[in-house]
Amino acid sequence: MNKTMVVISDSTGETANQVLDAVKVHFDIKNVRIKKFSKIIRREQIDEILNEINGEILIFSTIVDRDLLNYLIEKTEMNESIYLVDVLSYPILVSSKFFKQQPKFDIGLNRKVDQEYLEKMEALEFAVKYDDCKDKFGILKADIILIGVSRTSKTPLSLNLAFKNYKVCNIPILPEVEVPSELFKVDKKKIIGLIIDSDKLNNIRENRMAKIGLQLGYSDDSRIEKELDYAKEIMNKIGCKIINVTDKTIDETSNEIISYIDK
Protein backbone atom coordinates (compact mmCIF):
# COMPACT_ATOMS: atom_id res chain seq x y z
CA MET A 1 0.00 0.00 0.00
CA ASN A 2 1.52 3.30 -1.13
CA LYS A 3 -0.57 5.94 0.61
CA THR A 4 0.43 9.31 2.05
CA MET A 5 -1.51 11.74 4.21
CA VAL A 6 -0.38 15.32 3.62
CA VAL A 7 -0.89 18.62 5.41
CA ILE A 8 -0.49 21.76 3.28
CA SER A 9 -0.89 25.21 4.81
CA ASP A 10 0.13 28.78 4.04
CA SER A 11 0.39 29.36 7.79
CA THR A 12 1.62 27.05 10.59
CA GLY A 13 -0.58 24.10 9.62
CA GLU A 14 -1.74 23.52 13.20
CA THR A 15 -5.45 23.42 12.27
CA ALA A 16 -4.91 20.91 9.45
CA ASN A 17 -2.70 18.80 11.73
CA GLN A 18 -5.49 18.62 14.30
CA VAL A 19 -8.02 17.56 11.66
CA LEU A 20 -5.66 14.91 10.33
CA ASP A 21 -5.08 13.54 13.84
CA ALA A 22 -8.84 13.52 14.51
CA VAL A 23 -9.46 11.55 11.29
CA LYS A 24 -6.70 9.00 11.90
CA VAL A 25 -8.25 7.61 15.08
CA HIS A 26 -11.30 6.39 13.15
CA PHE A 27 -9.36 4.09 10.83
CA ASP A 28 -7.07 1.11 11.14
CA ILE A 29 -4.11 2.78 9.48
CA LYS A 30 -0.83 0.97 8.90
CA ASN A 31 2.15 1.85 6.77
CA VAL A 32 0.74 5.22 5.79
CA ARG A 33 3.23 8.02 5.45
CA ILE A 34 2.43 11.44 6.88
CA LYS A 35 4.02 14.60 5.51
CA LYS A 36 3.44 18.15 6.68
CA PHE A 37 4.19 21.33 4.78
CA SER A 38 3.70 24.79 6.28
CA LYS A 39 4.29 28.34 4.99
CA ILE A 40 3.40 27.29 1.43
CA ILE A 41 2.86 30.57 -0.39
CA ARG A 42 3.86 29.89 -4.03
CA ARG A 43 2.54 27.66 -6.79
CA GLU A 44 6.03 26.29 -7.35
CA GLN A 45 6.01 24.92 -3.80
CA ILE A 46 2.78 23.05 -4.47
CA ASP A 47 4.28 21.59 -7.66
CA GLU A 48 7.33 20.43 -5.73
CA ILE A 49 5.18 18.74 -3.07
CA LEU A 50 3.01 16.88 -5.58
CA ASN A 51 6.00 15.82 -7.66
CA GLU A 52 7.82 14.57 -4.57
CA ILE A 53 5.08 12.17 -3.38
CA ASN A 54 4.17 8.98 -5.23
CA GLY A 55 1.08 6.81 -4.94
CA GLU A 56 -2.25 7.83 -3.50
CA ILE A 57 -2.36 11.10 -1.60
CA LEU A 58 -4.90 12.44 0.88
CA ILE A 59 -4.36 16.18 1.38
CA PHE A 60 -5.69 18.25 4.28
CA SER A 61 -5.37 21.89 3.25
CA THR A 62 -5.82 25.07 5.26
CA ILE A 63 -4.56 27.37 2.52
CA VAL A 64 -6.28 30.74 2.94
CA ASP A 65 -5.00 32.54 -0.15
CA ARG A 66 -7.78 32.00 -2.69
CA ASP A 67 -5.57 32.02 -5.80
CA LEU A 68 -3.18 29.49 -4.29
CA LEU A 69 -6.05 27.31 -3.09
CA ASN A 70 -7.67 27.33 -6.53
CA TYR A 71 -4.35 26.28 -8.03
CA LEU A 72 -4.13 23.34 -5.60
CA ILE A 73 -7.70 22.36 -6.45
CA GLU A 74 -6.92 22.42 -10.18
CA LYS A 75 -3.82 20.29 -9.70
CA THR A 76 -5.60 17.67 -7.61
CA GLU A 77 -8.63 17.47 -9.90
CA MET A 78 -6.29 16.48 -12.71
CA ASN A 79 -5.03 13.46 -10.77
CA GLU A 80 -7.41 10.67 -9.73
CA SER A 81 -4.95 9.38 -7.12
CA ILE A 82 -5.07 12.64 -5.13
CA TYR A 83 -7.88 13.38 -2.67
CA LEU A 84 -8.20 16.91 -1.33
CA VAL A 85 -9.90 17.96 1.89
CA ASP A 86 -10.29 21.75 1.97
CA VAL A 87 -10.59 22.13 5.73
CA LEU A 88 -11.58 25.80 5.89
CA SER A 89 -13.74 26.68 2.90
CA TYR A 90 -17.03 25.02 3.85
CA PRO A 91 -17.01 26.16 7.52
CA ILE A 92 -16.11 29.70 6.38
CA LEU A 93 -18.83 29.67 3.70
CA VAL A 94 -21.54 28.63 6.15
CA SER A 95 -20.27 31.08 8.79
CA SER A 96 -20.27 33.86 6.19
CA LYS A 97 -23.97 33.24 5.55
CA PHE A 98 -24.67 33.05 9.27
CA PHE A 99 -22.89 36.33 10.15
CA LYS A 100 -23.86 38.01 6.85
CA GLN A 101 -20.25 39.12 6.47
CA GLN A 102 -17.48 38.53 3.98
CA PRO A 103 -14.62 36.51 5.52
CA LYS A 104 -11.26 38.22 6.02
CA PHE A 105 -9.12 35.45 4.52
CA ASP A 106 -6.06 36.77 6.36
CA ILE A 107 -3.18 34.31 6.36
CA GLY A 108 -2.11 33.44 9.91
CA LEU A 109 -5.12 35.12 11.52
CA ASN A 110 -5.40 32.37 14.15
CA ARG A 111 -1.74 32.80 14.98
CA LYS A 112 -2.22 36.55 15.37
CA VAL A 113 -5.08 35.93 17.82
CA ASP A 114 -2.98 33.39 19.73
CA GLN A 115 -0.08 35.85 19.88
CA GLU A 116 -2.32 38.61 21.22
CA TYR A 117 -3.61 36.22 23.90
CA LEU A 118 -0.09 35.26 24.93
CA GLU A 119 0.97 38.90 25.12
CA LYS A 120 -2.05 39.69 27.27
CA MET A 121 -1.29 36.81 29.64
CA GLU A 122 2.33 37.95 29.85
CA ALA A 123 1.22 41.48 30.71
CA LEU A 124 -1.14 40.18 33.41
CA GLU A 125 1.59 38.04 34.95
CA PHE A 126 3.87 41.07 34.90
CA ALA A 127 1.26 43.23 36.69
CA VAL A 128 0.83 40.61 39.43
CA LYS A 129 4.57 40.03 39.84
CA TYR A 130 5.39 43.72 40.16
CA ASP A 131 2.31 44.82 42.08
CA ASP A 132 2.94 47.11 45.05
CA CYS A 133 6.71 47.17 44.42
CA LYS A 134 7.17 43.48 45.22
CA ASP A 135 10.23 43.64 42.98
CA LYS A 136 11.66 47.06 42.23
CA PHE A 137 13.42 45.78 39.09
CA GLY A 138 10.02 45.74 37.41
CA ILE A 139 10.47 49.52 37.12
CA LEU A 140 13.19 48.98 34.52
CA LYS A 141 11.11 46.50 32.49
CA ALA A 142 7.67 48.14 32.59
CA ASP A 143 5.87 49.99 29.80
CA ILE A 144 4.03 52.03 32.42
CA ILE A 145 4.90 52.79 36.05
CA LEU A 146 2.14 53.93 38.41
CA ILE A 147 3.07 55.74 41.61
CA GLY A 148 0.84 57.12 44.35
CA VAL A 149 -0.36 56.79 47.92
CA SER A 150 -2.39 53.81 49.06
CA ARG A 151 -5.97 53.54 47.71
CA THR A 152 -5.45 55.49 44.50
CA SER A 153 -6.47 52.43 42.40
CA LYS A 154 -2.94 51.47 41.40
CA THR A 155 -3.59 47.71 41.35
CA PRO A 156 -6.91 47.72 39.45
CA LEU A 157 -5.41 50.18 36.98
CA SER A 158 -2.41 47.90 36.50
CA LEU A 159 -4.68 44.97 35.67
CA ASN A 160 -6.91 47.07 33.41
CA LEU A 161 -3.87 48.23 31.44
CA ALA A 162 -2.49 44.70 31.35
CA PHE A 163 -5.68 43.57 29.57
CA LYS A 164 -4.68 46.10 26.92
CA ASN A 165 -1.23 44.48 26.64
CA TYR A 166 0.76 47.03 28.65
CA LYS A 167 3.31 45.80 31.19
CA VAL A 168 2.66 47.81 34.34
CA CYS A 169 4.27 47.97 37.75
CA ASN A 170 2.99 50.12 40.59
CA ILE A 171 4.89 51.74 43.43
CA PRO A 172 3.32 52.92 46.70
CA ILE A 173 4.60 56.28 47.94
CA LEU A 174 4.98 56.56 51.71
CA PRO A 175 6.89 59.22 53.70
CA GLU A 176 8.57 56.51 55.79
CA VAL A 177 9.76 54.47 52.80
CA GLU A 178 12.58 55.57 50.53
CA VAL A 179 11.56 55.91 46.91
CA PRO A 180 13.29 53.31 44.67
CA SER A 181 16.24 54.90 42.89
CA GLU A 182 15.16 53.13 39.70
CA LEU A 183 12.35 55.68 39.32
CA PHE A 184 14.98 58.28 38.47
CA LYS A 185 16.73 56.03 35.93
CA VAL A 186 13.83 55.43 33.54
CA ASP A 187 12.13 57.74 31.07
CA LYS A 188 9.85 59.98 33.13
CA LYS A 189 7.23 59.72 30.37
CA LYS A 190 6.64 56.12 31.47
CA ILE A 191 5.74 57.24 34.99
CA ILE A 192 2.22 58.26 35.97
CA GLY A 193 1.60 59.88 39.35
CA LEU A 194 -1.85 59.24 40.81
CA ILE A 195 -3.33 61.69 43.31
CA ILE A 196 -6.74 62.00 44.89
CA ASP A 197 -8.62 64.60 46.94
CA SER A 198 -8.03 64.16 50.66
CA ASP A 199 -11.75 63.95 51.57
CA LYS A 200 -12.37 61.19 49.04
CA LEU A 201 -9.29 59.32 50.20
CA ASN A 202 -10.42 59.64 53.81
CA ASN A 203 -13.80 58.05 52.97
CA ILE A 204 -12.19 55.24 51.01
CA ARG A 205 -9.77 54.42 53.79
CA GLU A 206 -12.42 54.55 56.51
CA ASN A 207 -14.51 52.06 54.55
CA ARG A 208 -11.43 49.93 54.11
CA MET A 209 -10.70 50.01 57.82
CA ALA A 210 -14.25 48.98 58.63
CA LYS A 211 -13.99 45.97 56.34
CA ILE A 212 -10.60 44.55 57.24
CA GLY A 213 -9.54 46.40 60.41
CA LEU A 214 -6.51 48.40 59.34
CA GLN A 215 -4.38 50.25 61.85
CA LEU A 216 -5.41 53.55 63.45
CA GLY A 217 -4.09 56.61 61.69
CA TYR A 218 -4.57 55.13 58.23
CA SER A 219 -7.53 57.46 57.57
CA ASP A 220 -6.47 60.30 59.84
CA ASP A 221 -6.77 63.71 58.12
CA SER A 222 -3.29 64.89 59.05
CA ARG A 223 -1.78 61.58 58.00
CA ILE A 224 -3.51 61.74 54.62
CA GLU A 225 -2.38 65.31 53.99
CA LYS A 226 1.19 64.34 54.87
CA GLU A 227 1.12 61.39 52.45
CA LEU A 228 -0.39 63.43 49.62
CA ASP A 229 2.06 66.29 50.08
CA TYR A 230 4.99 63.89 50.08
CA ALA A 231 3.68 62.05 47.00
CA LYS A 232 3.26 65.33 45.07
CA GLU A 233 6.77 66.34 46.08
CA ILE A 234 8.19 63.11 44.67
CA MET A 235 6.14 63.37 41.48
CA ASN A 236 7.28 66.93 40.89
CA LYS A 237 10.87 65.90 41.53
CA ILE A 238 10.57 63.16 38.91
CA GLY A 239 8.72 65.46 36.53
CA CYS A 240 6.15 62.84 35.61
CA LYS A 241 2.57 63.27 34.47
CA ILE A 242 0.08 63.56 37.35
CA ILE A 243 -3.54 62.43 37.13
CA ASN A 244 -6.20 63.24 39.72
CA VAL A 245 -8.33 60.09 40.00
CA THR A 246 -10.89 61.54 42.43
CA ASP A 247 -13.87 61.55 40.08
CA LYS A 248 -12.61 59.15 37.43
CA THR A 249 -13.54 55.54 36.78
CA ILE A 250 -10.79 52.96 36.24
CA ASP A 251 -11.54 52.93 32.50
CA GLU A 252 -11.41 56.73 32.26
CA THR A 253 -8.04 56.88 34.00
CA SER A 254 -6.75 53.95 31.96
CA ASN A 255 -7.74 55.62 28.68
CA GLU A 256 -6.10 58.88 29.76
CA ILE A 257 -2.89 57.02 30.59
CA ILE A 258 -2.87 55.17 27.26
CA SER A 259 -3.53 58.39 25.34
CA TYR A 260 -0.57 60.00 27.08
CA ILE A 261 1.78 57.00 26.74
CA ASP A 262 0.98 56.41 23.07
CA LYS A 263 1.99 59.96 22.20
The count of helical stretches stands at 10
Distance between the termini: 64 Å
Uncertain residue segments? none
Shape: elongated
Structural class, from secondary structure content? alpha/beta
How much of the residues is beta strand, in percent? 15-25%
Strand runs, count: 8
Global mean pLDDT: 86
Strand line-up across the major sheet: 2-1-3-4
Biggest sheet overview: 4 strands, parallel
Radius of gyration: 29 Å
Secondary-structure element series: EHEHEHEHHHEHEEHHEH
Share of helix, binned: 40-55%
Brief descriptors of the model:
pyruvate; four-stranded parallel sheet; alpha/beta
Notes on the protein architecture:
The protein is an alpha/beta fold and 263 residues long. The chain contains ten helices and eight strands. A four-stranded parallel β-sheet has the order 2-1-3-4. Helix 5 (109-129) runs antiparallel to helix 7, helix 7 crosses helix 10 (250-262) and helix 8 packs across helix 9. The chain is elongated. Its EC number is 2.7.11.32, 2.7.4.27. Belongs to the pyruvate, phosphate/water dikinase regulatory protein family. PDRP subfamily. Pfam families: Kinase-PPPase. Bifunctional serine/threonine kinase and phosphorylase involved in the regulation of the pyruvate, phosphate dikinase (PPDK) by catalyzing its phosphorylation/dephosphorylation. This is Putative pyruvate, phosphate dikinase regulatory protein.
